[in-house]
Write a structure and sequence with these properties.
The structure holds two protein chains of two kinds. By secondary structure, chain A is an all-alpha fold. Helices cover 76% and strands 0% of the residues of chain A. Chain A has a single domain (69-285), classed as MetI-like fold (Orthogonal Bundle). Chain A has helices at 7-47, 52-56, 67-97, 101-115, 119-133, 140-164, 168-176, 181-210, 213-216, 238-245, 251-283, 285-289. By secondary structure, chain B is mainly alpha-helical. Chain B has two domains: 2-77, no CATH class; 79-275 and 304-325, MetI-like (MetI-like fold, Orthogonal Bundle), CATH 1.10.3720.10. Chain B is built from eleven helices and four strands; from the N terminus they run H-H-E-E-E-E-H-H-H-H-H-H-H-H-H. Chain B is globular, with a radius of gyration of 24 Å. Classes of the chains: A mainly alpha, B mainly alpha. Chains A and B meet through helix 1, helix 3, helix 4, helix 5 and helix 6 of A and helix 1, helix 3, helix 4, helix 5 and helix 6 of B.
Amino acid sequence: MATVLHKGRSARRSIQSGVLWGVSILALLLVLFLVVDILWLVVVKGAAGLHVTTFSTDTTGIAGGLQNAILGTLQLILFSALIAGPIGILGGAYMALFAGARSARILRFVSDVMAGVPSIVIGYFGYTVMVEHWGWGFSSLAGAISLAMLTLPYIVRTTESSLRQVPKSYYEGALALGLSPTTALRTVLFRPALPGILTGMLLAVSIGLGETAPLIYTAGWSNFNPTMQLFKNPVGYLTYVVWTYLNEPYDAAHQLAYTAALLLVLLVLCLHIVVRVLQRQGTDPSQTRS
Amino acid sequence: MRRSRLWGRLFYGVTGFSAAMPLLVLLVIGGVLFYDAYPAWRFQGFSFFTGIDWNMGNMYANGPMTQNGVQAAPGASFGILPFIVGTLGSSLIALLLGVPVAVLTAFALVYRVPSRVAAVLSPLIELLAGIPSVVYGLWALAVLAPFVEFQLGPWLATLGHVVPYLAGPVGTGLGMLTSGLVLGVMIVPIIAATTRDLLLQVPRLPMEGALALGMTPAECLRFIALPYIRRGLFGAIILGWGRALGETMAVLMISGNADNYTPPNLYSPISTMASTIATLLDSALTDFSGMAVHALALIAVTLLIITMLTNLFARLMMQLGSRDIGVEVS
């Protein structure tokens, strides 16, 4: 037994341990470096092209502003949230409140699998069915529905888990006090779960914001401001600018791509900060009861 | 009272329908894609997966030719082996580089960094997951491609006489290696965040017991924590892999979009299945016989099946993994 506790061996073990932690710290630093490098590139190069006119003029063939793309992105996101939001929240409510353990597990599984469907597959589906077969053309509705399909599973899952965090006894107590089931649902279950549900919606929005693949063949692209028309009118969006204007052989076009990327990153950043704040509120019990 | 019961029933029905929506959508997408892809399967058969040529045929011919009972432009042939190789190759590079970095990052975040610092760093890493994929593409074009072209590539190519696949020419920096690198960066936050959550849920007592018995911290990790999180970790890795397989835009921007050959070395331009659907849909629409669009649908079906299988497997593993720890891991 004495040989097991030999000095050389114990030294080797502590060196092994040290090496592992050294490498871990290096990995962490590498990841942080990558985050900073990406943000730095986008901020430095993007800010150079940021003017007031960026927000007030439309894109042209080579450059121009981003007004149409910003408004188009907002329109697509708004429409997709209007479609996926109610369905996702109601679906999540069913899974948290009514579904048995087994069916809830299956439904959860299905929405997890759906979250993994590649966005280009959804884009292809949207193109062949909505744009071509139903004859909607490149349109805001086709784009919004594609985005909604993409974001629905996230909303369902976050709604379900935030409703599940509310103790069932609250609901039962409310019923015992004579509240009708619907009122009890609204006041006792949904109100404390609201920050969580909102978090899910915002996350879904930030996912939709960054998507390109499902939109190329459904929303198309337009150099003009979005009309509120649902059909036959293509819409512009920011991610498209990043993708295509980078391939143009003009500096002005490259600049526009970087500026669009900066706006995207800023929007995602804002959403993440809001989500953080909401999450902190959600986990604070003194806040959720009010 | 009656009215409220009616409302309750209505609520139950509407929510139930909404909850079934993901399943319905998934079934409809699958059904439509299969229906769309079937003619291409009849036309090409199994050589769809083994063929190297993607050729829509002679678009100026007088009429379509008929093969296996379906019509396509004369000379058409649809083989997606190069896209399969590109997809697998780039995603495996991503796993090879991304997984160790992600797992080690999670180790550092949980065990080495003071929890106050970790509370600041974790959101930063999660932000990495939220960055749009076109921005990754932009970054890869501006930073990664030159790095591969002038530094990493030439250095790796000197190892070419040991491993022939590493030999040059390095090319422009747009190709498989760069695609793999950017995919690797993209899957790091997914795997790191899940691993961190798993590690945080490893029960404290056995860890402290092991330390008290004289194990080094690294041995505690290896022999106590890792067995707890093994399956969950495996699930997270497969989940990241699924994400890399289906990624479109970042790859589209830096892969070089090559077709009709299998990449001869690590730096050659490639296409993946996902990026091919995005690039070729435009031109496929000019096929008067419509077969090219069917062939793209078959790619989409293949991609859908592969990603669904990886996801299914990953989720199963993660569920089993959370049972190992005894807590639900989202």
